Amino acid sequence: SRDECYYASLELDSCMKLLGEQHYMYSNLKARKLYMEAMSYTWALSENDYNISWRPTIQASLKLLESSLALEPNASYTLQALGIHYSYLYEYDKANKAFEKYLELRPYDVFAKYSLGLMYARLREYGKAEGIFNDLIVKYPAWILDFKLQLFDIYIKSEQNSKAMAVTNELIAVPDTRAHGYFIKGIYYEQQDLLDSSVHYYNLCKNLNSEHTAICDNNIGHSFFVHGITDSARKYFQKVVDLDSTYTHAHFNLGVIEAGEGNVQAAMSRFFKAISVAPGTMEGFVTNLQLYFGKQFHLEDKQ
After folding, report:
1. pTM score, two decimals?
2. Among 140, 175, 234, 246, which is most exposed with the fewest C-beta within 10 angstroms?
3. Over residues 170-181, mean pLDDT
4. What is residue 227's three-state secondary structure?
5. Whole-number Å distance between alpha carbons of 6 and 13
6. Which of 206, 204, 201 is nearest to 190 (CA)?
7. How many CB atoms are closer than 10 A to CB 169?
């Protein structure tokens, strides 16, 4: 727990005082004391827990971790924590360097390799990311689904459509991953602006696996929305809310429809609901409405 990390840092501080600054272990103990103090702020913090209110805490923890690393440059656990903390603050270049150094020290760590692949993808270094995920598929076939889904995302973003389609067909060919294949094929056709095909594959996905019903219906609603078929979009978003009242996207999308139709109060009610049920990973999505609308607002001080 974070409390246990805090008390561990106090115990290490006591050890340092007993030994004195001249002792050969002093700097190592100080590095670990700083690490445990950092973890007393953020131990076991996940992406779903994180939101903007955590930013000052993350920054305080990062300062301690950076000081710790300066004393013990090859502490793999510190490098891993730094990579994760930098990613929370969207400092992907720094996160990338931390994970690269971590992998030099622990070359067989699947989590670190996977995280490094994600960092490359976010930095739009798609070739490097592709290489990592293809390598992981060969070495760790038990997690092939996760790696192939990341490859699909890379291919879509880098407009390698034939490779993206190949991934969907590979997943569909295997019964255990067929539903996921149908789902990303729906995404593929949505990206291609082919409404009927995207809706068809989303329906195949949810019919095969009911656990995907909410996300499929939300995506179907979005497909109708971007084609200007608002009534159908509203119908599917409402189906999602009826199924799961905490589904952030559906509340947000209904708010977008209300705003577009001039129903300001109803729109704000939906947006507030979206924020109230949003996990940390969704916070930017529900608080940057101007990005969703593709607009920029220039406010002038009229006084």
Report:
1. 0.72
2. 175
3. 96
4. coil
5. 11
6. 201
7. 10
d(CA 178, CA 165): 14
Is residue 253 within 8 Å of 218, Cβ to Cβ? yes
Q: Which residue has the tokens 């880098």?
A: 158
pLDDT at 76 over 80: yes
Question: pLDDT per residue over 50-60, tens digit each?
Answer: 777 888 999 99
Distance CA 101, CA 31 (A): 18
Strand, helix or coil for residue 174? coil
Q: By percentage, how much of the chain surpasses pLDDT 70?
A: 91
Residue 159: Cβ-neighbour burial (10 angstroms; 0-12, 13-18, 19+)? exposed
Task: Please give the C-alpha separations between residue 175 and each of 28, 100, 165, 213, in angstroms, as whole numbers.
Answer: 52, 36, 17, 18
Contact (Cβ atoms closer than 8 angstroms) between residue 112 and residue 97: no
Least trusted range by pLDDT, from 87-101, 159-173, 212-226: 87-101
CA 240 to CA 20: how far, in whole Å?
A: 62
Provide CB contacts within 8 A for 28, sequence distance 6+: 71, 72
- The whole-angstrom separation of Cα 178 and Cα 5 is 44
Determine the residue type at 274. Answer: A
Quote the distance between the C-alpha of residue 174 and its chain's center.
27
- Rounded to the nearest angstrom, the gap between the alpha carbon of residue 199 and the centroid of all alpha carbons in its chain is 25
